[in-house]
Amino acid sequence: MAAVAIWVHRPAKLAIPVGMQAPGSVHSSVLRSIAAGATKQEVLHVATLAVVTLGLPAAVVAHGWVTVVLDAP
């Protein structure tokens, strides 16, 4: 079994705090994903996939948390 690359692993870990609706953990996971080499598009993709599980209103809130971090200078 091959090891999962860290830049794939970190965005996947973002899904957990998004599902828990934990804004501080979402911010931290976004920063860690970017630091591990994930692109902004990959991080946004994980947040967008939350629509299926959480429903549109909660996913829009989570997407907002992610974009706040990604758009920060």
Q: Roughly how much helix do the residues carry, as a percent range?
A: over 70%
What does the main sheet amount to?
A: none
* N to C succession of SSEs: HHHH
Q: How many individual β-strands? A: 0
Mean pLDDT: 83
User: Distance between the terminal alpha carbons, to the nearest Å?
Assistant: 39 Å
**How many separate structural domains?**
1
Which stretches are poorly predicted, pLDDT < 50 over at least 5 residues? none
Percentage of β-strand residues: under 5%
Radius of gyration: 12 Å
Rough outline: globular
Number of helices: 4
Structural class: mainly alpha
Brief write-up:
The protein is an all-alpha fold and 73 residues long. It has helices at residues 6-20, 23-35, 40-54, 56-70. Helix content is 79%, strand content 0%.
Describe this structure in words.
With 73 residues, this protein is an all-alpha fold. The chain has one domain. Helix 2 packs across helix 4. It is globular, with a radius of gyration of 12 Å. The termini are far apart. The mean pLDDT is 83.
